[in-house]
Design brief:
This is DUF4276 family protein. By secondary structure, this protein is α/β, with parallel strands linked by helices. The chain is 43% helix and 13% strand. It has eleven helices and six strands.
């Protein structure tokens, strides 16, 4: 059996748990042992706790490990230049893995302010805008020979959970015929109404975020993956990435 290892930068610990489990199961079906090692966030080895993270931390990591430009090197003290050259995402991959996956939900597109234009002022789709931002943060482009895999679900990873349910379900009764799962904004409210575990946060019901729950969710998505990928293009893209990676190994 082929073996592949990917490094992961994502929004939070439940994404780590979900993607590790789902990738492993999909990989086995494709004849490969796929393992994922989280780079950010990472669980504290002493306390066992996860740090606060989110999309801002994804951006911070990307900028910290970006491919450095001549302008970057010009602003670095000479004795640190060689170290800076080695502090890139490409160097991390080269020494320890087959690739890098960066996951970020696209519900934050409106909050990205460090590109030339804000999302509402562009003609780009939500995913395309977030992809452009990630390329900018790591100082790469679509034409780069080597680039990470971007996993950019709309509006969020939890869309794949909502896609487990048929369009005829009551939870979708307010939506028009032929609605697009990836355009549903109020994911949490709908999932909670379907019985997904929740807790109060500042007086508002929010999805409970526990690793064990998201391992279960990953199993459910895996068991119904043909349906999920037919309703979520990002899930299909992720499977295609795994297929191509395994084929080229």
């Amino acid at each position: 059996m082929k073996k592949l290892k990917y490094l992961l930068v994502c929004e939070g610990p439940t994404d780590v748990a979900f993607l590790k489990r789902l990738s492993s199961k999909l990989g086995k079906d494709l004849g490969a042992e796929v393992t994922i090692q989280e780079l950010s966030p990472q669980r504290d080895a002493t306390t066992g706790e996860w740090p606060a993270h989110g999309w801002n931390a994804v951006r911070t990591w990307c900028k910290s490990w970006r491919v450095k430009s001549d302008d970057d090197f010009a602003s670095i003290a000479p004795h640190f230049v060689e170290l800076a050259k080695r502090r890139t995402w490409k160097a991390l991959v080269k020494t320890s893995a087959d690739g890098l996956i960066i996951q970020m939900d696209t519900d934050i597109a409106e909050h990205i302010t460090d590109l030339d234009e804000r999302f509402p002022n562009t003609a780009l789709g939500r995913r395309e805008f977030c992809e452009k931002a990630l390329f900018n943060w790591i100082n790469e482009s679509e034409t780069s020979e080597e680039k990470p895999v971007f996993l950019l679900p709309s509006y969020a990873m939890e869309t794949w959970l909502l896609a487990l349910y048929d369009p005829s379900e009551n939870v979708f009764s307010d939506l028009g015929t032929g609605f697009n799962y990836e355009e549903i904004v109020n994911l949490e409210d709908r999932l909670i109404s379907l019985g997904f575990s929740s807790k109060k946060k500042k007086g508002v019901d929010r999805l409970a975020k526990k690793d064990s729950q998201y391992l279960n969710y990953a199993d459910r998505v895996y068991n119904n993956f043909q349906t999920v990928k037919s309703r979520c293009s990002e899930a299909e893209k992720f499977e295609c990435f795994l297929i191509e990676s395994i084929r080229n190994q």
